[in-house]
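Slide 14.
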Amino acid sequence: MSITIKKASKNYGTQQALSNISFSLKKGEIVGFLGPNGAGKSTLIKIICCYLSQDNGQVEVCNIDTQKQDLLVKSKIGYLPEQNPLYLDMYIQEYLYFIGG
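Slide 15: predicted structure.
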């Protein structure tokens, strides 16, 4: 899997969450996003996973544009959020079985 991000930005109203972020990851590389609360880490992950769209710039996963072929990108990645957003009473294993089904 590869990820390429070119000058991606995201605003929430007047609040800028990302400003012209650019980097690329090649197959086999392992990275971590570090930064204080509000730095844009979760926003960037959601853009890569096609849960949000960037306001400008380009994001590709496996050379697939996330804005043009979001379903194909989603078929290539898995995303487990920090908290189970919909079913708070389910254990994570139950949630995974539910989503997998």
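Speaker note: The chain is about 20% helix and 30% strand.
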